[in-house]
């Protein structure tokens, strides 16, 4: 969303730099630097399991080392005042009178406060500065990261009384009920519960989760941004979600065991086609087959079978393109180019779609070749400038203690 601050350089997120930046705009911080605290919340990539979260299926995201940090001094006056480190813009609200959304980045903070209050979590006021290395509107969950960083800064005892998964659900509530996006739990979950050096499998029905090892000795995760601005994302996202719910309701009307598309088996799909017509049938087929591909990807990773991972990610991408229809030509171009580079084990679009990024699992020695090929081929094909990020999988949100 263009209402959020642009991304900073990683050096701007260093604790010393953030303390100095806060002291420059907030006299209390300058007067008493010992009271400054810093929280962080990462963005995420999803390795596989796209649009399955709100259908109560499986997702496999990883939190990444592109993140949002807030340096702040706590206050007891109930006022929340934040400065965007990127633009210098100052925004504020009162915890006792949060009010309606304003159409600005402060909505993610105010919405989180609204949801924390609804959940009965005690909060404090603060004066702070936000700095982010996460590109916005890119499908890497900058809004979830801002919500989680806000939750850690606002809540009186984060991580103590409120466990990370509960914080993720509160932040999802902020997005659904205050910001107005009907998203599932994946983004907030990944930012809250990420595991360093691994991806995390979440069963979106039971909310059980566990880390899943990645072959990061030999390979690395590479995110490639299409450089295209997402358009119609929220409205198209909400349409897809409504189609999935309509499909589950249609089959559920004659089969009480079907509460969501999670309960639909491949054998039930022909009946689904009779009931809901071709478009909604294809949306359902994506969800049903994608849940299967998450499970198969877990098995393939455990077996070290990266050729199978590559086939599964390619099938996921094709299903998102042909059945779910959320793949832009730019995403397709990036995946096609990656497939021509030796050492790229797997590539697919990641996130909601309609623009944004691809995720690639790449041999460490092949990252430069992939970057060079994308830089050589993609701008000519699309007229756009891509951005390539080799990312690490990191732990979920919390306080920054170092330095
Ligand atoms: C967005 C949403 C998530 C999820 C993905 C698609 O990132 O916020 O809840 O639905 O799209 O997998």
Give the arrangement of secondary structure elements.
Layout: H1 15-25, H2 27-31, E1 37-46, E2 58-59, E3 61-75, E4 79-84, E5 90-94, H3 106-118, E6 125-132, H4 142-154, H5 164-179, H6 186-193, E7 198-203, E8 209-213, E9 219-225, H7 233-254, H8 269-276, H9 278-303, H10 306-322, H11 329-339, E10 344-350, E11 357-363, H12 367-382, E12 387-391, E13 398-399
Parallel strand pairs: 4-6
Antiparallel strand pairs: 1-3, 1-13, 2-7, 3-6, 4-5, 7-8, 9-11, 9-12, 10-11
Helix pairs in contact: 3-4, 3-5, 4-5, 4-6, 5-6, 7-8, 7-9, 8-9, 9-10, 11-12
The chain binds alpha-D-galactopyranose.
Alpha-D-galactopyranose binds near residues 50 and 51.
Account of the protein in words:
The structure is a single chain. The protein has 403 residues and is of the alpha+beta class. The protein has a domain at 15-44 and 64-196: Ribosomal Protein S5, domain 2, CATH 3.30.230.10. Helices cover 41% and strands 21% of the residues. It has helices spanning 15-25, 27-31, 106-118, 142-154, 164-179, 186-193, 233-254, 269-276, 278-303, 306-322, 329-339, 367-382; strands spanning 37-46, 58-59, 61-75, 79-84, 90-94, 125-132, 198-203, 209-213, 219-225, 344-350, 357-363, 387-391, 398-399. It has a 6-stranded mixed β-sheet, sandwiched between helices. The longest helix has 26 residues, at 278-303. The model is unreliable at 1-5 (pLDDT under 50). The protein binds alpha-D-galactopyranose.
Give the CATH topology of the domain at 15-44 and 64-196.
Ribosomal Protein S5, domain 2
How far apart are the termini?
32 Å
Task: Please report which band the strand proportion falls in: under 5%, 5-15%, 15-25%, 25-35%, 35-45% or over 45%.
Answer: 15-25%
| Level-2 CATH architecture of the domain at 15-44 and 64-196 | 2-Layer Sandwich
Low-confidence stretches: 1-5
The neighbouring-strand order within the major sheet is 5-4-6-3-1-13
Helix % is 40-55%
